[in-house]
Structure formats: C-alpha cells, structure tokens
Automatic annotation (TrEMBL), chains A, B:
InterPro entries: A-glucoronidase_C_sf, GH, Glyco_hydro_67_aGlcAse_N, Glyco_hydro_67_C, Glyco_hydro_67_cat, Hex-like_dom2. PANTHER family: ALPHA-GLUCURONIDASE A. It comes from Hymenobacter metallilatus. Residues 1-21 form the signal peptide. Belongs to the glycosyl hydrolase 67 family. This is Xylan alpha-1,2-glucuronidase. Homodimer.
Length: 700, 700
C-alpha cells in the first residue's frame, strides 16, 4: 500500500518533469537534501529550530526564512522559526553591535551550547545565514564551528548595462530582467530571486541601468518603478543606484545647459536628488559615464571631470549616497589609447569631493582577455578608486565559451603597483588600506539576463559567484571559489569535481591562447566584438581597428610602449614598469602589450616569436578538446540537461577556437612569411573563407 | 508512518517550491490530475495502454509519447506504450490513408471496442492525439466519443519578427527564443516545448526570422543553424520557413544586382534554394517584405512584385515550397495610405505563379485595434491570399493590457467582401473555397519571447491558442476558444470560469473604447506605438503622424474616405461599401474610418459625436475596473502567482487607460471646444503634463 501510494505520487509528479530538470534557475542556492545521513543528523541536532527576537525588521525575517528554507531542504525535515532565546540544539539569529565586525561582518559561534549567528546589523546576520548554509551545503561538520568574516570593500556592486527597452548592452543571456514597462505594479518574482543570489555572495548594491544612460530614470514616472524594485531588493541588503545621463537637466529639466558650474543646473540636480531620496530613502547614489564614447559630460562646457563629479556630490549633500565617476575615457587621435585615461584623470587626483569615487576598469584598454593592470591604480592616492571588472563576456566569447573569470579578477587584484613600495597591490588600493580611504568599491558588469539559467552559459554563474565572494574578501583563492561553486551548483561527487576544477581554473588561460596569446589584444570582430578580425584596418576611429593594436609588419608584431614607442610604460611606478620593460625578461603573457618583437626573435620559451605564437594558437585550440574530455569525465555525476547544455557549448567553443586559430595564423603569416612549425597542421581553409565567415556575423 | 513519510516527502519537495508555482511555462498543456475520480476511472478504462505499429516514424513516436505524458498526468496512473494491435480498453494510433480526412485530418472513434486515432499521415494522428487530450483535459467523457476534424487552411504559420541579435521587433515578452549564437550545437529545450505548443493547436509551420530580414540566414553558416531548429520541430509537424532579404544576391552573393529578370540573379536564387533543400529537405519556403518601409525589392529595378515573387517561385522549382509575398506596402505621398496596397497589388492579380501566395494584413493600415477588412480580400480572385494577423500587441498595449484577440480575428474572417454576392466572407477567400484555390494560408505574427510564460501577459497565451485553433478551423467560435483556453490553462472551477470569460470576450472592445473609439485609428505614440499621441503632427512621413488619420478640426473629426474625400470606400464591392457609405447608418465602430463628422452631429446612439466620443473614453476606462473586479471574483480558484501577475497587469492597464482617456479627451477638446457631458468628471491633469509623460517613454 505504501509503495503503491509512493508510485502514484511519483507518477503525478512525473509529467511535470520539466520543472524538475536542473534548468539552472536556482544557481548555487540548491537546497537539495544532503546525501550523507550522518552529516544530516549532526546538523539536525544543532538546528531544531531557528530563534529570533520579537519585532525584528524585514531583513532578519528574510534571513530566518532563507535559513529555514535551506535547512529544511538540506536536512530533510521541518525547522520551525520562533521568537525565543537560543539554547542547546537551537540556532539563534541575533543583532548586537560589535565594533570588531563592523556594519556588515558576521560571527557564527556556539553560545551557551547553541549555535548563534550575530552581527551589528540585520544585514550582517543575513550574510551570516548564507555563510552557514554554505557550510552545510558544502558538507562541513557543525562540531566546533567558529567563523567570522567581514567585507574588505564597502561598496560591492553589480553594474547592469540594461536599457529601458529591455535590451542589455553587451548582454548574452536574453533580455533585461527589469521589466520597466510593467513596473511599478508588476513585480516579477525573479527580482526577489536575484536579490537572494546577490546577498548570498555578499554583494550589497545594484546599478540598475546602462552607463550609456537614459534620462528616463530621473523622472517621477520612472522613479516610482525604481522604488518598486528597491522595495524588493531592500530586505536582502541590496541598495539601488542609477547611472545618470549628464545632459539630463537639458533633456528632461528644460534647462538650456548642463554646465556643472551653473547654479540652475546645480539646483536642478539638488532637487532631483532630494526627490529620489524621498522616494527611495536608502538610494545608493550615481554612476556616471561622461565625455566618453560620445556621451555628454562637463567637458562640453570646458569643465573637468572633477567639476562634474563634485557637483553631483554636493547634490547628494547629507544623503547617504556616493558618486562613482568612470575613468573609461579616450579621446580620438591623441596618441596611444593606453595612456589616455591616465592623462585625463591622474592630474585630477586630490580635486574630488569626499563622496566621489573614480571607477577604473581593470586594464587600460577595454576588458580584454588579459590586460596589464590599469596604470591609474596607485597613481591617484588621494582618490578612492572603484575597480570595475566585466562579468559579461563581451570580449571573451559571449555565452558560448566557458571562461571562469576568477583568475582574471585575482590577477588584477594581486598585481603590484609598487606605488608605495613592493606589496602595493591593486587590492590594497581598491580596499582603501594602502591609501587610508574610508570609502572603497568594486563593480562587476553583470552577465545576467532573462535566460532561465540567468547567465546563458552555465559557467557564467561561476563568474557572478566568484565576483561576489571576491568583492567581499579579495584574499580568497580563485581555485577555492571554483571548488565552492562547483560543489554547490554542479556536483559534490569527488571524481567529477576533480575533473571539472582544472577545466574551470585553466579556462581563461586557454581562451587567451586561442584568441590573443603573448599579449595580443583588441583584434576581434568590429562592433560585435565576436570572432577574430585582426585584419580590421578601417573604422570610425583608428583605435577601433585591430591593426592599431597589433602593429604587424614584415619585421614583427606588437605595440612598442617603451620609451622608443608610446612610452605608456612610463605611466607605471618603476617597480612595476621593470617587470615589463625588457623584452628579454618580460613575461610572455605581456610581451606584445609592450614590445614590437621580430618574427624570428627567440623568446624565453626557447621558440621564436612566430613559432611560439602559432604553437599557442594551436595548443589553445587543442585545449578545448581537453576541456571537453574533462566534462565527459564528470558526466555520470551531472544532471543530464546541464551536462548536455555545457557539452554542446564546448562544441561551439571548439569550432570557434579553430576559427580564431585559423584566422590569426593565416593573417599574421602574411607578414611573417614563415612556415608553421613542422608539428602543426596548416589550416585547411584559406583566409578569404574565414573573412567571409566573420562578415556574416556582422550583417544586419 | 505513512503520513509521516508523506510529510517528509513534501518537506523535501517544499524548498523547490519555485518550480511548483504556476509560472505559465506549460501554457495550456497542463496535464495535472483530473479532480473527478469518476471521470478518471472512465478514461482509465479506455486507456490501459497506447498501441502503435512497429517501425513507425518519429512523429508517431512523438504522438504516442505526448499522449502517454498527458494521460499519465491527467489520469494519475501509468500508461504503457506498446507495439501491438488495439482492442477493448486500449488506445490505438494508426496511420491509414483516408481521402475524407485529407493529409492532416484525424478521426477519433471506437473500433472493435477500443478507441482509435487515425489519419492519413503521422502528423494527422499527432493532431488527433492533442485533440483527445483536449477532450480529457476539459472534462469530456469517453463514452460514445466520435470526433473528426481536418484543417480548412493548408499553411497555418507563426511569423516570428525575430532578429539575429536576439531582439524581437515589436516583441514584448523578452528576447527571441532562437539562440542563433549557440546554434547549431546547443538545442535549447524550449525549442521542443514550442513545437509541442504549436502542434497542439494545429499550426504546421514557422517563419523563423523577421520580415525585415537579414541575409545571414541564406549563408551555409546559418543554414546549419536553421537545419538544427528544423530538426527539433519536424517530429511535431512544424516546417520551417525563412524571410528573405531581397538584396541577398548583392549582400552575400557578390552580384552587382538583385534584378529578378537578370539570369545571374535567378541562377543565384536557384542555387541557394537547392542548397537549402539539401540541408532541410522539408523546408517550407520564403516570406518576402519587398519595397516596403525601406526594404529593397524588385521595384528597385523597375520590376513588379509579380516579377519578384515569380522568380522566387521558379527558384523553388520542383521543391515542395511556397512564396508568401507581403502586400504591406505604402508609398509616401501618394494619397490615402488606405488605398495604396490595393492600388499596387490588385492590378497584378492573375500574374503570380502557382507557388505564390500574397500575404495581406487583416486591415488596410497596420494592425490597429479595429480596422475594416483589407479591400484586397475578394479583389484578387486569381491569387491565393494569406491572412496576416498580429498576435504581438504592437498597437494593443504591449504585454500590459489584457486583450483577447479572438473577437478581432473572427471579425475579420466573418467580414463579408460581397465580391461574389453576399456570404463572400474573408474566411472563404482565405481558405480558398470562394475562388477555388488549392493553396491557402494564414499567418499570425508571434507574441512569443524568452519570458518564462512565453507571452509576457498571461492572456497573450490565449491569443496564440485562439489563433492556432482558428487557423485550423475558422468556424470555431471565439467565445468557445476562450472557454477552452481558460479551462485548460487557468481553472475549471465554474464560478471562476464564469467570471473570466466575459473579461476575455469583452477585453478587445474595451481596449478600443479607451484608445480609439468610433473608428479612430493610428493616434498612438510615435515609433514606440505605445501610449496616446493624437497631437503628433511631424514625422519623417505624413502618414506616420496622428493628425493624418484623425483630421480633427474646428468642425469635426474623422477621415472622409467617401467620394468627397479619398474615396477609399470605392475599393470595396458595392455590397460591402454600402455598410459604411452613409454616415447616418455606418456602424459607430467604423464611423471615423470613413467620415469626417461634425462635433455636434447626433449619432445613431442618440448622443452627439463629442458626447459619444468622450463617453466611450470614460466608459472604456471604467470597464478596466470591471475587468479587475471580474478577476478578483476568480481569485479563489487561481494559482496565487498567476492571480497576482494578472492583477498587477490590470492595475497598469487601468492607469494607462486613464492616460489614453485624459490625453484624447483633452486634446480633441481643443478642437471641439465643448464641455464634457455633465456625468463625466474632467481629467484632473492638464494636457501638457500628459504630453511630458508620453515624451518620457520616447527618450533614449
């Protein structure tokens, strides 16, 4: 009878199978029952109930609910929530000011025989709850658990490049998750799940809209919509921020100017800002892309970036908000683009108001697969700098290439600026410890869209995850985060994890190899930024072409940025510069970033430039095969739908790796006029065929 | 013990609750267990197993699998599929040529005591399986079941206006479901669910890409992708079609011309077409938007639409494919836009090749909330005409207004062209019976996107559903389809159904009232086609403004299309013309389509034009309140998430109905210079405020 009932139950469930397949929507928050009965028992013994004080606020209620949801799933039995003190076998959530933990840090420990999660604020306890769930989910034991953590960076934000019409600039995972047309009345359940995901990894804010900003968001009509989103995000500790259009006073304010020194412009922004805070009391502040790529800005009125940023800071006044002013600027025709943001911003150091942070991309060009760290890091000691990294894979294969970005982000964070002696890492600039700033920030350009699994490529989830965790604590190891994510999201089966981890950890290096080895950069398909187009020589601006960057000629390859060339190297502190200055000792990964190297020049690897270059294109491509094999090894432990999805994407990736390899090898060969090393099989197709293929992807 | 086990089971299921809420993904294919035990037993007794012949093809296997899935869910017990003959208590699927049923018709009947679904082809049996499931799902009894049906129209297609970059022109439900970047390797599971949905309502084909077409799709690179989609759709009886860019021979063929009379152009299309059929043997054919809204076409070479269409027909040669050539053309500055498609296409009647169908929108302007039927219907007796209707609500409130389109589609189908005497309905023109055509077609511009529930607004699903069912059998009643859809998708609880049905059935009339009553048309926000903008008087073309259409002046309102005006009325047969010719007898719904009427003119309703106009704007807006109340009545029987979603959208709809009402009443009052009828409360806001609001939605 019992068995028959079960059978019927399963049958009734059966037809809804679609809802049960692992479609990726739950991200890493998979509260499936732990397979180890013993481990479940151990945790059950410590979590007979969740105890909170009476009359707590919405964030602590959210924390208790999330914990309940997670523990019930992981441990397979009910966990009531009650307003009662803690005690042996019960789990208590408690807000108590603790200077050692700051505003957002949490502590998990035993108090009077019972587990307790404490923090100075409700949000801190929420972070602690997710930390505890992570312990359970990754199979840690409860005995002797003692854990405390607090974020090293204060503003930990996702930047959405989402447009009001629902498209996402450089988005590859469907449309925007924000449904502006339907807001404020319709609250997509997805908003809440998004907030949960961000909170679970320690993020605390969201810039909702594209830096190429619409003025719509500053109107009352849209502020009501923004407020509705903010209302859903608030209990999860996520504040909302807006990108602003510099010309807004003209476009929607009816003024004739946007000059930051004009009193009427200042008054307009002040009034707008007050209005925003009336609607959204915990509004986070403004992100600004000004005088960059055609966007308006204070320079339209012969004012500086500092004039603009400081005016907005004054508009914020006593409100608890900040201005993040982007340093991503480059003027056409003013020499090496590598130098331009530095030249424009470094002289402004010391001129920015207290609430202003300058937001700097990880590298000097634009989110290439590998860049040297941006020379502004360490060079503006009197200005807090936000590190901006890109999670959406604009230049890294969209949603069809598996590229785990942990290593890229860490590479930048750990780079040593040498500005205050050895050990002056980018991380210490960004977290404020090097230059004693109280404000600090980090921003990830979101890779999130309406796709069911949020990120298109399932591995994209790992990038969202690793970014959040590193934003919280940049000392975490990229490999450890890959392991955490894999075990929470994909499988805890040891052999499968062992197969997947090297795939993730090496994926970025492999991508670099088959697209831009040895320090090549910006040789991708124009506008689209997809596929290879090293032959691109005509564009609206010279620094939008490929030849501008690779400078291939009969002699050799690479951009001379030493004193004999653009001398961009001089922008770095001597200690940092030293690493790259000598072509003989420059690490091969950065060689062509800084040197024009002869085709026949022997490198430190023992091969000539040409042989090394082509060998890397081939070995990078072959490595995608290796990634496929690793994924196959994990197959028995994976959800079939997820397995098939990634396996198919790896097939695309291999096809496109060959595309890159053949394109670049054949194109550069026209300059090098050398045969491939004998171990490599020449491409089977002519370059003309590849050029046609690239053109197809750029058709209307 | 049993109860405890159940409790635990439910707990384990609990945390995945998100997957259980009714998120709309399953559409009307909800195979939840029938609540009536008796009814389940009756059906169980007839469906102990599903029997098919050995060695059947993929479509019959698909049919058996779908039937199994559905019956197991609805009846709550396993239904094995076996290769065996039928028999009492078993359900047999059988392919047997049957001239009475045609190629796609099915019959469900008892044979030798057992239920049997038969048809001439596997696809026919598949349609029969969905028909049987519909019987079960809507609570019909099996006793004495005897049912047969065949489609009245041969080509029943969805047209996707989806672009290669993933955007959807006039799409309001997220991004395109086609992931071109990931194809052909990655096959989103959604493709299959899409095909199921189409097959379940009797559609048999899909134009994958926007009529503003990219040439990409004709390249080998993209044909591989198209073939991959076709492979998923094929077992569900769905053929794929492509929209083609007329200039493709130049853009991707390297030719200097696209002149259809040039032998090299003809040869290019022939070779391309042969290549397509090599890749996709059951390819359906081409859809063409030529010399329309800036698209290239044969007129660029002084050739006619017939020259162009016939050239493509010749390229198709012996392949089983068709050309659908769109009649949606209007030249700037050549008189009343209402007349232009007629003037260009009617003279070509008789000149089109056998494989060509001309595709005509339901009305002469462009998918307005109500239009008179297109004058081309009945006026091209020697040419099969495809009826094109728009399911995506470009002019009908996007995804925030509940507008059930069954009445709109039926209104057009039942319109009488009088071309061969009374009863010469558009339906009979379209299904080919009036003019004895063997080819016939109907196309719905899809309202489908990546949103979880496919259509953004849940009611949008009803439009997809009703279109498919009407495409199969245009004699079905709109109200019956609304009932079918509601009971399959939302609830079978009688009181709730009784509350929802009038909401659906009256929704389109209500939308007309608060946006474009009495035959007003094309007065919406420019470019965006959202919100009111009757004051729009400047645009790139006069017929893109609003004043072109409403012609408000001090005397009155409306477009005189009688002999004293543009005389567009003359394009209709006398019998049809008669209905609209006299302003005194013209039905109020069409009045301003054809007449310029004085503000003080008394109408058949007993009110003056001004009073009737304003009364309709107000009563239409009030009716949205009534829709909200109806929805509340149904609440107890609805899934909470679905209830909340629609309730919120109705709040948006009411807010925007007020927006339309206030905008139009205040604007037209500037001409009428009359007070509102005393029962109506004047808008609380000035027109200037509304104009600002409209501007906001048109900002970058």
């Amino acid at each position: 009878m019992l068995l028959r009932l079960l059978f019927l139950l399963l049958l009734v469930i059966g037809p809804q199978a679609g809802a049960w397949a692992d479609d990726g929507y739950r991200l890493w928050l998979k509260y499936d029952q732990l397979p180890e009965a013993g481990l479940r028992k151990e945790w059950q013994a410590q979590t007979n109930s969740i105890r909170i004080d009476q009359n707590v606020g919405p964030t602590l209620q959210t924390a208790a609910h999330e914990l309940q949801l997670g523990l019930q799933g992981l441990l397979g039995r009910p966990v009531p929530v009650g307003a009662a003190p803690g005690g042996k076998g019960h789990l208590r959530l408690r807000v108590a000011p603790d200077a050692a933990l700051g505003q957002e840090g949490y502590r998990i420990s035993y108090q009077n025989g019972g587990l307790e999660i404490t923090g100075s604020t409700e949000t801190a306890v929420l972070y602690g709850c997710f930390a505890l769930l992570r312990q359970v989910q990754t199979g840690q034991r409860p005995a002797g658990l003692r854990l405390s953590s607090q974020p090293r960076i204060r503003y930990r934000l996702l930047n959405h490049w989402d447009n009001p019409n629902g498209t996402v600039e450089r988005g590859y995972a469907g449309s925007s998750i924000w449904k502006w047309q339907e807001l404020p009345e319709v609250l997509d359940p997805r908003y809440q799940d998004y907030a949960r995901a961000n909170a679970s990894i320690g993020l605390n804010g969201v810039v909702l809209n594209n830096v190429n900003a619409s003025a719509r968001y500053l109107t009352p009509e849209y502020l009501r919509k923004v407020a509705a989103v903010a209302g859903v995000l608030r209990p999860y500790g996520q504040r909302v921020y807006l990108s602003v259009l510099w010309a807004a006073p003209k476009v929607i304010g009816g003024l004739k100017t946007s000059d930051p020194l004009e009193p009427q412009v200042q008054a307009w922004w002040k009034a707008r800002t007050d209005e925003i805070y009336k609607t959204i009391p915990d509004f986070g502040g403004f992100l600004v892309k000004a005088n960059s790529e055609g966007e308006p800005g204070p320079q339209d009125y012969s004012r500086t970036h500092a004039d603009g940023a400081n005016m907005l800071a004054r508009a914020l006044g006593q409100h608890d908000g900040i201005v993040m002013w982007r340093a991503f600027v480059y003027k056409a025709g003013s020499g090496d683009r590598f130098r331009q943001a530095y030249e424009e911003f470094q002289p402004l150091d010391g001129q920015f108001a207290d609430k202003v942070l300058v937001q700097v991309k990880n590298g000097p060009i634009d989110f290439q697969a590998r860049e040297p760290f941006h020379p502004l890091f360490g060079a503006m000691p009197r200005t807090p700098l936000v590190l901006e990294v890109q999670l959406t894979q604009e230049y890294l294969g969209f949603a069809t290439h598996a590229v785990y970005l942990g290593p890229l982000i860490k590479e930048c964070l750990e780079a040593d600026t040498h500005r205050q002696g050895p050990g002056s890492t980018v991380a210490k600039v960004v977290d404020g410890t090097l230059e004693k700033h109280s404000l600090s920030g980090i921003a990830g350009v979101a890779n999130i869209g309406s796709d069911r699994n949020w990120t298109g490529h399932p591995v994209g989830q790992a990038n969202w995850y690793a970014f959040g965790r590193l934003a919280w604590d940049h000392t975490l190891r990229s490999e450890d985060l890959a392991r955490e994510w894999t075990r929470m999201t994909l499988t805890r089966e040891p052999a499968a994890v062992a197969a997947i981890l090297p795939l993730l950890n090496q994926s970025r290096a492999i991508y670099v190899r088959y697209t831009t080895p040895l320090g090549l950069h910006h040789i991708m398909g124009q506008s689209l930024h997809y596929g290879p187009e090293p032959w691109l020589s005509q564009s609206a601006r010279p620094d939008w072409t490929s030849v501008y960057y690779h400078k291939a000629d009969a002699q050799g390859l690479g951009f001379d940025r030493t004193a004999t060339g653009s001398d961009a190297l001089a922008l770095y502190a001597p200690g940092a510069r030293h690493l790259w200055a000598n072509p003989a000792t420059c690490p091969p990964d950065y060689l062509l970033w800084f040197h024009h190297v002869g085709w026949g020049q022997p490198l430190s690897t023992g091969r000539t430039l040409w042989d090394e270059l082509t060998t890397r294109y081939y070995s990078g491509t072959d490595s995608v095969r290796w990634m496929q094999q690793q994924w196959e090894l994990a197959k028995p432990a994976l959800d079939p739908q997820l397995y098939a999805d990634v396996a198919a994407r790896l097939r695309v990736q291999h096809r496109e790796a060959q595309w890159w390899r053949d394109a670049c090898v054949l194109y550069f060969q026209e300059f090098a006029r050398r045969p491939l090393p004998p171990t490599l099989t020449p491409p089977a197709r002519p370059l003309a065929e590849i050029k046609e293929l690239v053109d197809i992807y750029q058709l209307r």
